[in-house]
Amino acid sequence: MLVFTGVQVSQCARGNETLLPRARLSHQRNVEDMTTLIDEARARRELPSPALARAIREAAGVSQEGIARELDVTRMTICRWEAGTFKPSGQRLIAYVALLRELQQITGGAR
User: Fold this and answer.
1) Which domains does the chain carry?
2) H or E, element range at 11
3) pTM for the whole thing?
4) Whether the Cβ atoms of residue 92 and residue 71 lie closer than 8 Å to each other
């Protein structure tokens, strides 16, 4: 049994061919998936509390509808994120955090 970047792989019984898990077959896709996973984890840590997200948006003078249009979601989704009943995920999480970060910089850092 061999170890390949923390994943166990087995040797082919017919020879010295190494069989990699299917997830490793498309290296390019794995790198992209890993980048997305890392970006999501980073965004999750940087996501402000719902109250702070709302304060940042309001300090910038941006409506929930404006944020919703920018992120391609409904105004109600933004309302739910700001109320803390739901949290964004995936690419929308990454985009929402980036947008809030920019708005916070514009306004001088709403707290």
Assistant:
1) 1-46 (no CATH), 47-111 (1.10.260.40)
2) strand 7-11
3) 0.69
4) yes
